[in-house]
Amino acid sequence: MSQKVYAGTTVDVNEEGYMTDASQWTKEIAREIAKEENIDLTDKHLAVCEFIRNKQANSESITIRSVGNSGIIDIKGFYQLFPGAPMKKAAKIAGIPKPASCV
Predict the structure, then answer these.
(1) Is 102 a catalytic residue?
(2) Which of 42, 83, 88, 92 has its CA 20 to 30 Å from the CA of residue 98?
(3) Where are the chain's structural domains?
(4) What angle do CA 78, 49, 79 make, to 5 degrees?
């Protein structure tokens, strides 16, 4: 396990760069992680991040379909917000471990 500094805060990350302690997450940290992923974080991005953080906190399955059914955004919009690998990028920015549904 290693550490990274985001927004002046040292956080624990795994070998893939995912935070290992979700309680260390802040919106400022999310903005810096998003910059690393070449994403300009908007309120819509943050709403998706909050949704998946809540699902993870409640030990619920986090899938692209669940995000698409969240009422926040549809699946097509999810892919547009987090291009390439939406669930991986969203999880990383949200400060949660990579979901099991991600390869």
Answers:
(1) yes
(2) 42
(3) 2-94
(4) 15
